[in-house]
Amino acid sequence: MKNISLPSGALLFSVIIMSQGLGAAETADAGPAFGKQLLIQEIDCSKDGSDAMFTDYPKGVSKVETILGTQCRVLPNSEGGPKYFAYRVGKGLGLRPGAAYVLSVEFPDDKPRNMFIRNLGCETTRGIHSGTAVGDAIKALYVNHNPESLNFPLTGKFQTWRELFFLHDRFPEIKNPRGSAKRPLLPADGFWVIIAQLKAENNLESAGAAVSKIRLFEITDASALDQKINYPPAELPRRHLFFREEMADGVVAQGHKPEEKLPELRGVTNPVDWYEYKVKLMRFLGMNTFTKDLLEFGHNQGWDSSKYKGGSAWYNASSTPSLWTDIIQMLTRYPDFYVFPYYEYAGSIGQDKDIAIGRQRRCETLKGGKDYTHIEWCHKTNADLADPAFIDDAKKILEITIVENKDKVKFIGAWFRPRPEANPISFNAKDLEIFNAETKQERKITREDLQKDKALLEKYYEWWFKKRHDFNLALSDYLRKEVNPEAVILYTTDASEPGIGLPGSIASKNPGECKMVVVTDAVEKWDNYLAGNKEFFKSIKAFPYDRVVAEDLYLQALLAHRGTWGNYEWQHATPRNDPLNYKDNPGAMLSYSFNRLYTVSSRKAFEAFRTPSGLAVIRHYGLNENDMNDGKDPILGYFVADVERTGPYCMLGEARAFANGDPRFIGYLAGNCFNRGFPEYVRAFNAAFLSLPALPSKIIENASADPEVVARAIPTPKNGTYVGIVNTGLKDKKDISISLPACAKAIDNVSGQTLPLKDGKITLSLYPGELRSLSLQE
């Protein structure tokens, strides 16, 4: 490694010069999951900066402090608006588009901290939080982030966030564009890495972003880092891990006009390359199921819809009509992958209303209107799930996007998630006619009758929810006949990004007094915070974590009608969950939303959503959309970011979901480009999770003397018993004795090692959130 002093006033770097420069690159330890790799650049954040390679906002706001014996650059958090500091990384160091790199950020874990790390080399922003820091904006601009503040332990040491990424062809300046726009920087120019934090009111409990070093490594062989998955025998059903990204594909967006297809408007010239980068990331993380949105807010996202009446008659033509089939062709190079397309179905949206039935807006509110909510851009299209015409309409989409490609990749089904007003409860004349006929009413029921009679309205709800189930089951039956006999339709009723929130009524019975709660184990402290800024935190109250869990308040929220106000009908625009209707028939299932710890801490809640096809849990991330704006100034351009906890706690939600629910499907609704910053823990969990068969399991009662260590037994017809063991606690578990079902041998399914077995017990040490997968042999 060579230390190079740049001219006076410039930033002092510890820089590794690539072979194209003054000397050969040297290898260094890139950390767990990566090992020795080429160190391209190391930035000591405590050194003085220059306008050329370093900047901060507001100018001069960042300071150098000694933390845990090491100098760090810190953003103060005592007051003021959003802040950041940034470095241009990799300039003149021979960076190569499409090559694999690791960005690492070293930070102190001495106090609760919250920060965002924006890597414009791949246009990805991720947030991290530690200790009692909330992470997402407490009071977001657009949504309820369901804030939770719990006393997570701190290590008192430095930790490192690491992100595997594939370098884009072009990069934006610090103000990131939304969608298609010129990206002026090329690999030779380097790319911006930004450390940012929210304004002080939205960032309570955080001691401020602090970073000691930023490093960039080049990965010489990314495929060598793929996480090996030791699946159970082929005759046993498998589990699935997947993600869908929302505000991400603007980096490869292009319009219909020639000037909207210019390569300089895209971060990656060939969009299929961008999707292949995601496949490579998934292989590294140990995820096995590819998902892409094919309908977003009902609109065509890259498939050829011309089959029915041609052009844009049925669905408006995509500007990239071959994208989906091109992606599928790319996926044929990864035969171990499964495919699970995602649809925000709202009825067909095309130019010919005779065939584009979503544009007919057949659904009507209980009051007889067309608009269910105040969101005007949702007032364009909808699907009436009680009307059989929409089953045929949806089948056409599955025919083109799945059935016609069934011999190329392994489809496991389809994931449907309507957004507001897309699949509402409808009270139009045809629906009322069907209701009257199917429920054998003695007289003709009208909307006025339903408005006056709550018991009758409940009967209508009961009927409608069964019709929604029938819609999903019809699509599942279609895919099971045409594609895969085990195909599933996963239906997510939760239209929100952060996930369904707890109602303010749990904290106050006075309407309007509380609209949002902060779930915490330190209620008095948070009461004082909120009281200290009543104007900003109006209608927000603290609520005890223990009560949320003990009283199953989250399950109640999942099953409740959505809150509404005025003349709107939000309760009908985004109909609630009805998991009871999915208990008997395989093939159709509702997803269970999770995010905070209180959402994964009740066995009863998970059990409510279990189906004959298993349990599906979906992690909802808060958007933090535009929450880095300083007043009206978008200081980082368009801003969206997902947030995760630091270190092993990044997988604690999944660990508790396994302990309390044992899902077959774990999915992620990412607001930004998906990635994970502590991959060693993610890979370990995923490898263990996928090595277990997707069969019913039971908790082994009293398997451990420590109730935070949970063991689940999974018996199979011919392949013995599998056991999953997980640490659900916040602390390491050392030398824990675990009783197993009768066996002669216990084999770790990930490592292949035989574990010492004595008197039917094994001894394990587990870090928080660690999952171990065993096969028992008689």
Question: What does this protein look like?
Answer:
This protein has 778 residues and is an alpha/beta fold. The chain folds into four domains: 2-225, Jelly Rolls, CATH 2.60.120; 287-496 and 550-671, Alpha-Beta Barrel (TIM Barrel), CATH 3.20.20; 504-549, no CATH class; 698-777, Immunoglobulin-like (Sandwich). 17% of the residues lie in helices and 24% in strands. Strand 26 (516-520), helix 7 (523-532) and strand 27 (540-544) form a beta-alpha-beta unit. Helix 1 packs parallel to helix 2 (323-331) and helix 3 runs parallel beside helix 6 (454-482). The longest helix is centred in the middle third of the chain and has 29 residues, at 454-482.
The total count of helices amounts to 13
General form: globular
Radius of gyration of CA atoms, rounded to a whole number: 26 Å
Mean pLDDT: 95
Tally of strands = 40
CATH level 3 topology of the largest domain: TIM Barrel
Biggest sheet overview: 7 strands, antiparallel
**Oligomeric state of the chains in view:** single chain
CATH class identity of the largest domain: Alpha Beta
Task: Determine the N-to-C terminus distance.
Answer: 55 Å
State the CATH architecture of the largest domain: Alpha-Beta Barrel
User: Helicity range of the residues?
Assistant: 10-25%
Estimated share of beta-strand residues: 15-25%
Total number of domains: 4
